[in-house]
Automatic annotation (TrEMBL):
Pfam families: Pyridoxal_deC. Belongs to the group II decarboxylase family. The lineage of its organism: Eukaryota, Metazoa, Chordata, Craniata, Vertebrata. The modification N6-(pyridoxal phosphate)lysine is found at residue 362. One of its GO terms (biological process) is gamma-aminobutyric acid biosynthetic process. This is Glutamate decarboxylase 1.
Amino acid sequence: MDCSPPGYSVHGISQAKILERKQMRKKSIHHCQSTDKDVIKETHTENLLTNLSNAYASDLLPSKEGEDLTRCFLLRVVNILLHYIEKTFDVKSKILDFHHPHQLLEGLDGFDLELSDHPESLEQLLVDCTDTLKYGVKTGHPRYFNQLSSGLDVIGLAGEWLTATANTNMFTYEVAPVFTVMEAVLLKKMCEIIGWREAEAEGIFSPGGSISNLYGILVARYKQYPEIKTKGMTVLPHIVLFVSEHGHYSIKKAAATLGIGTDNVIEVKCDERGKMIPAELEKNILQAKRKGQTPFCVVATAGSTVFGAFDPLHDIADICEIHKLWMHVDAAWGGGLLLSRNHSYKLSGIERADSVTWNPHKLMSVPLQCSAILTREKGLLGACNQMQAEYLFQPDKVYNSNFDTGDKTIQCGRHVDVFKLWLMWKAKGTYGFEVQIDRYMELAKYFYKVLKKKDNFKLVFDAEPEFTNVCFWYFPPRLEHIPKSFERDQELQKIAPKIKAQMIVEGTVMLSYQPCGDKVNFFRMVFSNPATRQTDVDYLIDEIQRLGKDL
């Protein structure tokens, strides 16, 4: 039944206007029409330069006769994306065209973020798509080193496009038959790579490493205190968990979210390279017990965010076994190193963990987001989280309902994050990932050796990098020969932020910086971008010197 006022459409547009738009749409479609064979043969932008100013989203499929217009519109979108991808890999292009937040809010050259009550044309939407990319950051640019997740893998991108087109939910096999089985295949592979050869291991893909770490702590608590699920925290003793002082901040966030409390996350001292000291862990556990606290979990780190440090997993596992504690390994950053026969020894002992976080969207360069929580004991995720919603998880389905994985999660709706990883694994093979990761390690070693020879750069650690993280200070000429002192450090503290600000304004390169403990602001270089070459590393060094020499 049409509940619209007489003479008006559902969009509040008059019937006369609708007829006028239909006539204009037919004219627009005339310029877009071509056979499927022509579309395959001729994908040049000139064939797609048609005016869509009089066409609207309501004219696209499933609208009647919307097929040609839909094809035309989507081909135009693809051309915008292809142009952006080509610019992304061009080292001469800027990484970003920086503007302040207030400028974006106020509007830039017709790019208006405000939302209207009335529909805008498809032509305007194409302009908006172009502007959105124009004012964003090219995270696939060869000189983008800002985050642990960087790069743009074309196969992964294709996987993400297909995933969005399928637009389904991971909670049941019923609505995602291929994707749920793919997830099972990938999880089995990842568990085997960790070293869990028995068939009991399981896992799920989650919305990022922070949530995967939360799952690890959630399951650790449930394993020790299953009554938590129904009775809540009031029936538990004063529980505490342990993490290295360089562990990821998501551990404290998880403790806050789960009602454990951040005060009950005990940070363990690390050595000069950022690795947890086992003797300090043992001491902290005994101190907690003397205070009447009840330890239940230790979170070890395999690849810390800033220093790229790997905790001594075997030593930590020994302590966990003695005290009967759950061992979770946050390998969000370092997990990909398991694929390298040259470097996987750095995670030796991970096979003894009870749960592991692993983010393929970091070292493996899978498009965001792609993270897995893996557990050595099958059934715990389900027992901990399942609520057996009858409208989703009926036991008498026509297929094997073990593939209905949604009740293992704290979510209901769950995005498909597996296909892009599966497709990339098919494209590269395990050995292809290994070659990619080994090359990152070689680039880190090259960068370290170059910096070590330069008087105006100082490494945070003198020894060769253990991972792709390389941390360093740049000393402008005025500070280069001043002995270390409080006053010098106060000046040095300002250098990295000033250079970074100029990098962003000029859009030439992006690099992260931070202070850490008693160390004033230093740069953190990480290699996880498949497009980066030695020439880009050399460029970065020259650029830092250019921007910083007069500071």
